[in-house]
Amino acid sequence: MPRQLLQQCLNCGAWCLETICPQCGGTAQAAAPLKWSPEDHRANIRRQLNNVESPDWSQTIPTLPSLEEMRSGAGQQEEE
Ligand SMILES: [Zn+2]
Question: Which position among 9, 61, 66, 69 has the lowest Cβ density within 10 Å, counted as fewest Cβ atoms?
Fold first, then answer.
């Protein structure tokens, strides 16, 4: 019994539902997707890539305009 339904032939790459390829008779293997976990096992690596621990990192985060800037911007739109 195959581990999952969709199989792929190791010889010709054909997709099938059997472990023996109907195209060439070769061995077909489970076409499994990549392993996935809701936990982010590579978060530590990604933090190092983005250099999150440096004090300058917070300066690169996008920010909203200040309240005063937003109020003046909204006022201009209403006047027009
Ligand atoms: Zn094949």
Answer: 61
Q: How far is the CA of 76 from the centre of ligand 1 (A)?
A: 68
Which three-class secondary structure string do you get for the chain? CCCCCCEEECCCCCEECCCECCCCCCEEEECCCCCCCCCCCCHHHHHHHHCCCCCCHHHHCCCCCCHHHHHHHHHHHHHC
**Amino acid sitting at position 19:** T
Q: How far is the CA of 33 from the centre of ligand 1 (A)?
A: 20
Mean pLDDT of the chain: 84
